[in-house]
């Protein structure tokens, strides 16, 4: 249970900071301010793999296991982020890296709750009672609280590196040229941090072995219920 919560917390950390960084990255690093193209391309590349995943993830999960498929996915996730981080201003490389990364993120998107359910079954097998209520409460606390924490982290990075807000000139909003330090902070938030969170998630998943014994444990749970 502690492993699955640590996994979820690390994933939310990377994802939330990335989402907060998206507009800044498109405006000041990869594209130009409100160009109307850069963010659209990034979003489309992020959405296409999700459609592929509907058909591909579950057959692969049944063959290789939910944990194993998710672990392999996060290797791609970290690799794709690394490609973007190496070429943060090159549109083609960034889009290629984003595609690799989003393919790698598919297993997590589709099978996380199934892995979480396996952990809940394991807890019932071990303790002889269900803890779904408090488990989901903690899950929701992490979901909500980390958004605020990550907003503070990202805003702190911008403030520390000297981010400048756009200016209004003759009634028109005009972007200010950001320093190299600000651009580096934005780039780290959007593509750099998830290199590290991807690797950490792989390590955490190596220890999440509940799937190896869950069939046996679920059978024992059914036997107990039938015995009652």
What share of the residues does DSSP label as strand, in percent? under 5%
Shape: elongated
Uncertain runs: none
> What top-tier CATH class fits best?
Mainly Alpha
Please identify the structural class as seen in this structure.
Answer: mainly alpha
Binned, the helix content reads: over 70%
Number of helices in the DSSP assignment: 8
Number of domain modules:
1
Strand runs, count: 2
Give the second-level CATH assignment, the architecture: Up-down Bundle
The CATH topology label is Growth Hormone, Chain: A
The radius of gyration computed from the alpha-carbon positions, rounded to a whole number of angstroms, is 21 Å
Straight-line N-to-C gap: 27 Å
For the residues shown, what is the average pLDDT?
Answer: 91
**Element order: H for helix, E for strand:** HHHHHHEEHH
Tell me the strand order in the biggest sheet. Answer: 1-2
